[in-house]
Structure formats: C-alpha cells, structure tokens
Design a protein that fits this description.
14% strand; 15 strands; 6-stranded parallel sheet; Rossmann fold; 5-stranded parallel sheet; single chain; alpha/beta; 14 helices; 41% helix
Length: 443
Amino acid sequence: MIESQKILLNQLKNQIENRTAIVGIVGLGYVGLPFAVEKTKVGFQVLGVEQNPARTEKVNQAQNYISDVKDEELKQAVESGKLRAFTAFEPISDADVIVVCVPTPLTKNLTPDLSYIENVTKEIAHHLRPGQLISLESTTYPGTTDEVMKPILEKVSGLKQGEDFFLAHSPERVDPGNKRYTTKNTNKVVGASDASSLAVATLFYAQTIEHVVPVSSAKAAELVKVFENTFRAVNIALVNELAMLCDCMNLNVWEVLDAANTKPFGIMPFYPGPGVGGHCIPLDPHYLEWKAKEFNFSTHFIALAGEINRKMPEFVRHKAWRVLNQMGIAPSRAKILVMGAAYKKDLGDWRESPAIEVMDDLLEDGAKVMYHDPYVPEIQVGDCTLSCVELTEATLKAVDLVIIATDHSQIDYVDLVEKAKAVLDTRGVTRHLNCNREKVTLL
C-alpha cells in the first residue's frame, strides 16, 4: 500500500472511531431509516437521501412512518440536528461513509431489476471523492457490488477502489416487527474485494452493531443474504406442499406439524399459509436462480419452491369454493370478508402480500370482497381500490365467509368465529382456541 492510500484509510478509520465521520444513507425506507436513527444514537451526523419528497418532509419534521423506529428516537435524532433528509444527491459529497439501501425488485419475467442500484451508483459517482466508503445493503445476486457498482464508480469518477475509495457489501437483515432482534443486535455480515475496504467497512459497522462477521468478498456477502431467504422460501414451500397433500388425504396439516415440532432435534418449525409475501422471500431466491444460469447451473429447489408458493393463493381460492358450496352458495354470489391484507402479522406492509392475490382471485369469481386490517387503511387489488371495513358484529353476520389471511394479534378470534357464519383459517391461528370448531375450516 502506497503512502497516500495509508493516509486516506487511516484518516477514515480515525473519523469512524471518534464518530466525526458523516454518514450518508441513500433510501430511507424500512432498512435505511432504522439504520440512520441507530447511527445518530452513537453520535454520527447522518445525511439521508430519499427521492420520495413526502418521506423526506416527514423525516425532517420527525414524523415516523416505519414501525421498527421509535417515535421518540426519531424526534431526538432530528431535533438534535444529527439527522437531516434531502431529495437531491449533492449532500453525498460531504459524507465520509455512504450506505445504499434501495429496492431490488424483479421484472414481470422474474429477472433482477437493478435500475435503482445503477441509477443511485451513477449519482454517487458524480459526487465521489477520495477517502469515502460506499456500502451496498440492498439484497441482490452475487457479483452486483463488484460487477455493476465498481465499474460505474471508477469510470465516472476516475478513482480506483481500494486506492482512492472503498467499496463493500453488507446485506440488510431487517425482520420487520421483530422485537427481539433489531439493527443493533442482529449479526452483520460484511464483505469486500480488497483488504482495505473490508477493514474500514467492518470498523464502521462495529460502531453500532454488536457482532460483525467479515467474509472474504462482496460476492460471498451477497450470497449469504440470498441463501438465507432461499432457505426460508424452500422450507415454506415444503410445508405448503404438505398442506395440499394433507388436504387430499383428509388430514389436519396443523396437527401433523405441531406433533412433528415436538422433536427436540433435527427439525425447525415452518408453517403453511396463503402464500409468501414481503420484500424478500418471494423475490430474492429468483436473484440467485437468475445468476446461476450464467454458470449453466439449474437451481431446481429454488424454482420448485417458487412454483409451489405461487400456487397457494389459488389453493385458498379453491378451498373457499368448497366451503361455500357446502353452504349452498355459489362463489359469484358470495360475500367474503378477508381478515388481513399485510404480508405478516402486526405490520402494515402489504408488499407482495398473498392476501391481495387471494382477494383478486375471489373478485374475478364475481364474489363481493371486503377486508379488515387494523394496520392497512387502503389497498389496491387489480383495478380496484378497497378500503378497510370496520370489524363489527353486523359486518361478520352480513358475510357468508371469513378468510383469515393474516393472523394479527389484536383480533379476538374466538369472538370472530362465534359471530361469523363460516371461517377459513389459512394461518392456523384458531387451531388451539376454545371456539366453535364446526364453523372453522383449516388450510
């Protein structure tokens, strides 16, 4: 390492250790905003770049929109002057560390859409200066940091990674709604393709995260995250397929799983449902599946898991038909209340939620569909905009079928079963309750 490189590296390390480094965070969503607040709590000055003007204004007014952020902590960060948000990228020039937390969606053909990463990287490159660290946290396929970001940064800025600036990948591990594991106490994986970038990135994350796990490269770090989500997708697909098999065999899948999970070793609890949703599990495995094709390698488990999980909303639709037919009601004449629109209980996030697809299928059948979700006031289902209805005795008695699609904790399910005519429980939330079992059909 030449002397100028040592000076840049040591200067940045010193700034990080004494908390005088300015941290820029691009994307103030479910990953970026909690991360920003966490950094301010230990003294870092944070500049947030968020191109959604409404979000930027809310941050600057200390108005919280992320459930995992405490209102009082956001207020403290903003009122102390430690956190400011901008829609423009110019402030990035002042940042010593730049963390990228932008979406990585899929196209309609299930191929990676890296447009957010590419556009943000170009903007950063125009403001890049010697001595900065850039860390990508967005979930993506192995190779994105080195093969997409690095060439853009070097070409536009004329600077070199490991010599003039530092580049790393540290995948987010946010579990929305998890009260036990937060940004601070969730182990953090960090990888980079040069030793200097790895050292300074590891040091940066160690300032606010209890345990940092360095790996040998950015590619390895990228693969860690997509494997974690693929692991969940495959195991969820296994129990979803088991649910469909148990339905054919007239067995209770919940009884089978509850009994199997009493084994003290060699098994891990996973449960079926109406499908998979959220920002990770339905999407991220396809990033790995797509990348594998570059090596003429077929990821059979991933493809099959995705196929099975995508079948579940249709399975729920057919099961609803059967319940209605037993009641002598045609699907086209049915009134159905769907309990929950969010992809996960006790959250307001309905991205990729299987409940939306279930509702869309039922609307296509001609059913009158309404929903109740205490966390989601309005949703878009196909071409229809639906508003949350109140959960009242009159509502429950007016519908022919209640489908529990999301098992929010604050719902009184015993009362719901008592007042409803029939219930299709896709989450197994009623299976241990002392309620009228004759009204309930489990997935």
